[in-house]
Amino acid sequence: MGTLAYALWEARQFTLRSVQVQVLRPGSRPVRILQLTDLHLTPTQTDKMAWVRSLAAEDPDFVILTGDLLGHMDAVPYLAKTLEPLRGVPGVFVFGSNDYWSPKAINPFKYFVKGRVPKMSTARLPTDELESELLNAGWSSLNNARGSAEVQGNRIDMRGVNDPHIQLDRYHEVAGGFDPDASLRLAVTHAPYLRVLDPMADDGADLIIAGHTHGGQVCLPGYGALVTNCDLDSKRAKGLSRHQGAALHVSAGLGTNPYAPVRLACPPEATMLHLVPKAG
Fold it and tell me: Which are the contacts of 136, defined by CB distance < 8 A and separation ≥ 6?
């Protein structure tokens, strides 16, 4: 009972994690990217909303939303209010399964079944409304799309995929070499499945950004994540690592499935990525 009480408490201990990544071309100006993912927002989560709103004071140069933003059928207007202070900051987004289908209860032991095919609920979320809100905020969709941006004088060549967890990824539609003259070659996905990470790295991505794993959500102190809910190994369930020639950052995210509102040894997080030039 004590462990459960702690896990319920930890799930609301929101943390901003800072990470420095050497990925920009030499001579580029540093860039601060705020990654938000896996909010699983419901209308009653006022503490989470207030905390995310406060992140605008960190003055990011760019925002990346890596999906699973919704946790309730009526969450879109609450999400829009939560993200309002970040309007005007350039950014991009991709969707996760919980931006399409409402959450449902699941046996947690199913996450240990390799090759498990996820079964979504039959209740559709207002995805079109969500997309309209994000586009109106000035952010671009990278759901099976390419894009570009200029941030702090740096040209960013970008591409992303829709959620691989529910087979919506179409990387072949955006595949091919990145712009070799870009200051940053950026790839974005909600779920870090190897079938997406591999070609992104092969095509020359400097940095791949993902969410989805919740960092394992319930971890063993001193050991880490037991599962990732995809085919990425558990040692890379959260944080900065390498994937072939690319830097890979997986955020543990800010929320949980509303039916399992616990975290253990894995506090909810947003991440400020401090991108700096490569050595030499």
Answer: none
